[in-house]
């Protein structure tokens, strides 16, 4: 069964890439006990200044949507506008197989 996955590229506000990654670490900690969140990986680009990538794998898109719209994540997201310089660019995938999933 394919899982819902996405890779998201975010342009951080100037000098805010590490703070943005730290923000995603908070989100990953919030999902640590959620079995539907199988992978959440955040990192900075090695070749582009202030670019952050987030990679997620969820058991289903419905589970991702439920978490994304939860009160906890809605409150968490209020801190995002000062960290980003534009809208996210996401590529959605059906994760079928791989090490760890």
Global Rg: 13 Å
CATH topology: Alpha-Beta Plaits
For the termini, the CA-CA separation is 11 Å
Q: Main beta sheet: strand number and arrangement? A: 4 strands, antiparallel
Strands side by side in the biggest sheet: 2-3-1-4
Number of helices: 3
CATH architecture designation: 2-Layer Sandwich
Measured as a percent range, the helix fraction is 25-40%
Q: Into how many domains do the coordinates divide?
A: 1
Helix and strand composition category: alpha+beta
- Per CATH, the class reads Alpha Beta
Could you list the spans in which at least 5 consecutive residues all have pLDDT below 50? none
Molecular shape = globular
Number of strands: 4
Strand percentage, roughly? 25-35%
Question: What do these coordinates show?
Answer:
By secondary structure, the protein is an alpha+beta fold. It has one domain: Alpha-Beta Plaits, CATH 3.30.70.100. 30% of the residues lie in helices and 32% in strands. It contains 3 helices and 4 strands, in the order E-H-E-E-H-H-E. Strands 2-3-1-4 form a 4-stranded antiparallel sheet. The mean pLDDT is 94.
């Amino acid at each position: 069964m394919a899982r819902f996955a996405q890779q998201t590229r975010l342009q951080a506000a100037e000098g805010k890439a590490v703070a943005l990654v730290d923000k995603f670490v908070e989100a990953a900690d919030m999902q640590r006990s959620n079995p539907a969140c199988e992978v959440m990986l955040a990192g900075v680009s090695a070749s582009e200044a202030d670019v952050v990538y987030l990679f997620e794998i969820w058991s289903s898109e419905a589970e991702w949507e439920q978490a994304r719209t939860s009160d906890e994540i809605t409150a968490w997201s209020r801190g995002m506008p000062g960290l980003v310089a534009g809208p996210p660019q996401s590529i959605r995938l059906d994760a079928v197989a791989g090490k760890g999933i």
